[in-house]
Specification:
Blueprint lengths: L4 H21 L4 H18 L3 H14 L4 H13 L3 H13 L5 H17 L3 H11 L6 H14 L3 H15 L4 H17 L3 H14 L5 H12 L3 H14 L4 H14 L6 H11 L4 H14 L1 H14 L3 H14 L5 H16 L3 E3 L5 E2 L15 E3 L7
Antiparallel strand pairs: 1-2, 1-3
Helix pairs in contact: 1-2, 1-4, 2-3, 3-4, 4-5, 4-6, 5-6, 6-7, 6-8, 7-8, 8-9, 9-10, 10-11, 10-12, 11-12, 12-13, 13-14, 15-16, 16-17, 17-18, 18-19
The chain binds zinc ion.
Zinc ion binds next to loops.
């Protein structure tokens, strides 16, 4: 039977330790013989896929041999990775209670215990522990990284911003784009609670944090629409498109409303044509076909769309074309009705957004992947089934 990946890892660890221990201690006589015999007993359990018994033996060794603290740490991390958080917590707590640890061993055990707490969902305890670790030189960065992860999990965006800023200072890394997302989250919360002036301040801070970020520009546009400032809204949406053309599907309905409110609906066609030159998806083409229908009639729109689809096939485009066909000739519509049903069903089930990291599929944009928790890893899918 093939060994579990965790066992393979542990075997490697034990074999490494055997080499290290007995290479150093060959002249120490009976103590080494006993230790060696215990190691081989543990190794034997591992080979027989009895990890629990093996772990028991290694724990006994750890009791009598100070040098096996590293074995303890590795075993605890193995427990955690196997999903045995309680066991990992007990092991690390026992380790920390030992009086003979060096400062470094103690700090490493605390870091591990914090990760156990996180895995077990005990975020409060993990947070306290990592906050204590911030006081120890040399552990500020790992502690800050964990605190940053915890505050994101708790959606405590103000604290996340503090941790990210401090991490920037101590590591020299650039987290401006991450901080802009946290600020945008705060803006979203304020907007939902109806506090639009506060939302506006968060958005401006997000823009200042990362001037190239697209999300704060979209929010700025939506807030400007809410207060009826149509020129500012239009400017913000243009800035969003300049930064990331893939937000076209989100921007289009807002852009159309802004132009209508400004009495510039006649400029929509020209704007849509400019967008289709920069963006390969079907959304602006469909908006353009609506515009052509309004100006030149159904036949012209049908001709425009079918010509486009010949070069750029798209399920959503086809569904609209079928719709135009049905409206154009109601008498001959019967064969198209079931086709329309099928296409709409297909569209309802397709995900046009996908995470480039973990493959999570979604029908709407998520700035943070709900599955792998990465920011801006979810992208719009193009092509026949996408936008
Ligand atoms: Zn993901």
């Amino acid at each position: 039977m093939a060994l579990l990946p965790g066992l393979t890892f542990l075997l490697g660890l034990v074999i490494g330790l055997l080499g290290f221990r007995f290479g150093n201690d060959l002249r120490k006589g009976r103590h080494v013989d006993k230790l060696r015999s215990n190691y081989f007993r543990g190794l034997n359990y591992l080979l027989n896929e009895q990890p629990d018994k093996a772990i028991e033996v290694f724990l006994q060794i750890a009791e009598v041999d100070r040098h096996t603290v590293e074995t303890h740490l590795a075993l605890g991390s193995l427990f955690r990775r196997r999903g045995e958080s309680d066991r990992a917590i007990r092991l690390h707590q026992n380790l920390i209670a030992r009086p003979n640890l060096t400062a470094e061993q103690r700090a490493l055990a605390l870091l591990e215990l914090g990760e156990d707490y996180m895995r077990a969902g005990l975020l409060d305890r993990a947070e306290l522990l990592f906050t204590d670790l911030l006081q120890l030189d040399g552990y500020v960065q790992p502690a800050l990284r964990q605190l940053l992860a915890i505050s994101q999990q708790e959606q405590d965006w103000r604290r996340a911003i503090d941790h990210a800023r401090r991490l920037q200072q101590v590591s020299g890394e650039n987290h401006a784009s991450l901080i802009a997302h946290f600020l945008a989250e705060l803006a979203g919360v304020a907007r939902q609670s109806g506090d639009l002036p506060a939302a506006e301040l968060w958005v401006q801070e997000a823009i200042a944090s990362d001037p190239q970020a697209v999300r704060p520009r979209l929010l700025a546009g939506q807030l400007a629409m809410a207060r009826g400032d149509w020129p500012a809204a239009l400017r913000a949406f243009d800035e969003a498109l300049d930064r990331q053309i893939d937000v076209v599907p989100e921007v289009l309905p807002n852009l159309i409303e802004c132009l209508q409110q400004l009495g510039q609906a006649d400029r929509l066609g020209e704007r849509l044509q400019a967008i289709t030159r920069r963006y390969a998806g079907i959304s602006p083409v469909l908006a353009l076909s609506t515009e052509i229908e309004r100006e030149q009639g159904l036949a012209a729109a049908t001709q425009f769309l079918s010509e486009h689809l010949r070069k750029h096939p798209s399920v959503r485009g086809l569904a609209t074309l079928v719709e135009l066909q049905i409206r154009q000739d109601a008498a001959a519509a019967a064969p198209f009705l079931s086709l329309r049903g099928l296409l709409n069903e297909l569209i309802q089930t397709q995900s046009v957004y996908r995470c480039g990291h973990c493959g999570f599929a979604a029908r709407t944009r998520h700035w943070q992947c709900p599955s792998c928790k990465r920011w801006e890893s979810i992208k719009l899918v193009h092509g026949v089934m996408g936008d």
